[in-house]
Sequence to fold (317 residues):
Amino acid sequence: MKIVDYIHQAKKPLFSFEILPPLKGQSLNELLDGISPLMEFKPPFVDVTYHREEFIYKKHPNGLLEKVSTKKRPGTVGICAAIISRFQVDACPHLLCGGFTKEETENALIDLSFIGVQNVLALRGDAPKSENKFTPEENGHSYTKDLVKQIIGMNHGRYLNEETESGFHTDFCVGVAGYPEKHFEAPSMKFDLKYLKEKIDAGAEYIVTQMFFDNRKFFEFVRKVREMGIEVPIIPGLKPITTLSQITMLPRTFFLDLPDDLMDELEKCKNNADVKAVGIEWAIHQSKELLDNGVPCLHYYTMSKADATYKIAKEIF
Ligand code: FAD
Fold:
């Protein structure tokens, strides 16, 4: 079923979460066993992130270095199929512009529709770690709005290189990302929201936000989004801080601020166990306040580790 239909039919706010595909060589069953306790809270869908290729340098016996491309977390389509069949919930794969030609995108969407996927989160992706600027593939998409247009085109039976519309229409519900603290490349919040509106106007039906730790930033974002005339559901994305290293890593990686009240508590922590307890408490507090303010769904970034999210969900759902 489509995520927007779950939202519209729900009698109470929904619980959902996101997982990372296992690293190449690691077991999918271990990952699925790990998240199975979260099924107690009846998530209608589980997001599966996508990780584009990275470049590594392989040293040859003659001393020469060869640049090779590698995907550390392959297997999105298989993981979606496994989630659908094992838990009977919908899987929502993340689909990137980066690393894909339009034809590869089309083929990926056909595969996904054949295994019963009805939702995708459309994203641009970032530059590979070895590059400092996002560059689309030749004949790929530069911005998510163009990826959304391609998916919606397929929903109308429009395929690349086909003269006429085809009889088989996909039927994807498309979500897109929103940034309560602005996307790091956007020149200003106003322009970031203008581009967000372009994604909605292209046919996206809901927004999931980047993680944030200060609910006031989310409420302000929602207010501005509504002022732009965007009416689609906005799902807040939440991440419990669980390790000392995340205190510096999260702001650096995701271009967000940690509120002073949270930092005052984290500063007292001596080890990861202390941090995790504070992170869980903070996420519970955030979740309750967001629910009091009428959000349709709470979406948790689990990083494939379910225990912190389980403790939060137990308090909330
Ligand atoms: P876009 O909407 O294309 O925007 C990218 C930038 O371009 C923004 O600064 C925007 O303001 C600007 N822009 C947009 N349109 C225009 C235009 N017409 N002219 C000029 N500027 C424009 N990354 C992954 O690799 N894998 C994942 O699984 C993944 N999951 C994510 C899930 C969520 C909920 C979120 C919030 C992010 C996720 N990301 C993921 C990260 C995401 O790929 C990056 O943040 C990426 O840099 C931007 O993606 P986007 O879809 O928001 O891009």
In short: The chain is about 40% helix and 15% strand.
